[in-house]
Amino acid sequence: MKIARTVLMGLVAVLTAGAAHAAQLSGDAKASIPKDIQQLIVVDYRSMQASPAAMNLKQRIMPPELVRLETALKTSGLKVDRDTETLAFAAFRVGGTSANNTRTLGVAQGQFNTASIQANWVKQKTKPTVIRNYSVYPMGAAGMSVVFLNQTTMIFGDSAAVKAGLDCRDGLSSNILENTDMMGEMNIVDQRAIWSLLDQKGTQTMMRSVLGDAASLTDYDTVKNRMKSSRYTMDFANGIKFDMAVVMSDTMTAATAATLMKGMVLLKQSQGSQMEKAAMKETNIDSNSGTLQVSYAANDSQFSELLSSSLFQQVVR
Length: 317
Fold this sequence. Notes:
Blueprint: H1 3-16, H2 27-31, E1 37-44, H3 45-48, H4 52-61, H5 64-74, H6 80-83, E2 84-93, E3 102-110, H7 114-123, E4 129-131, E5 134-139, E6 144-150, E7 153-158, H8 159-169, H9 180-189, E8 194-198, H10 200-211, H11 218-224, E9 227-235, E10 240-248, H12 251-271, H13 274-281, E11 283-288, E12 291-298, H14 300-307, H15 310-316
Antiparallel strand pairs: 1-2, 1-8, 2-3, 3-7, 4-5, 5-6, 6-7, 8-9, 9-10, 10-12, 11-12
Helix pairs in contact: 1-4, 11-12, 12-13
C-alpha cells in the first residue's frame, strides 16, 4: 500500500467535513481485522461524500487497491454512498509480521437494510458462498466479495481477505484486539474523524517516502530499525491540522529522527517554490519521551495550493 497516499487521502477527507465526528470501529469490526496489520485507515465516509470536488481529488491520490475496493462496493448495488457512515481499510500481512505479502480488507459501518439487499440478491439469482454461518456474496465482476456481520457492519475484499476476516471474528486466527500495541495506539486516536495506524514496517515505508533524499543519510539506517509504530490524525475545527506521531524505541532515536526530519524541511525550504517554502515553515517537528512528533497547520486556501505543487506530486508518486 502506498502509505503516503493514504495520509493524503485523509487530508482530502478533512477538506470535505462540515462537523467533527468520531470515526470509531465497533467490536464486530475490530474482531474481523487481522492482528498483523501494516496499516489501518479509518474515515468518516459520510462527511467525505459532501464535496464533489474533494471526491474527484481523492481519486487522484487513492492507492489503486483502495480504488478497486471502493469501486466494487459502489457498483455492488449496496447503496454505499447513502448508507455507509464509516469506512476502514486494513492492509494486513499474510503469513505473520515477517511476511512481504499483504492483502487489504474493507470494513463498512452504517445502517444497512440487509433484508432488502439479500432479497435483491435472491431476485438476481446471485448465489453466495457459504462459510460456516456466513453467506458471502460476489460483488459484480470485480472478483470482490462482501458479507454482512450484522445490520450495521459488513466486510469486503477479495475472497481470501474476507475469509481471513471471518476467521478472525470466529476466533480461528488472531485479530487486532490481541495486538496490544495497536490497540493502545487506537485508543489515542479513534475519537478523531480521520485517523490511521501503521506498524513497524509500514512506518519505515512511510518515513522513507517522507524523508526523500534525507533517507540516504547514514543515520537513517540506525533510526529505521528502531521505529516501532506510528499514527496520524486530522483536525479541521479551525482550518486544517495534521498531526503525526512516530513511536521510537528510545528517546535518543526519536531526537535523531527529529533532526533528520528538520534537515528534510530545510532542504525543501531552500529548493522549493515560495508556496512550498511557506508550507515547510508551518511544519513543526519535535521529539518527546521517545516519540517523533510532526504537525502541520494551514487554512483551506493554503492547503489547496499545496495540493497543486510539485512537492505534492513527489509525495503521492
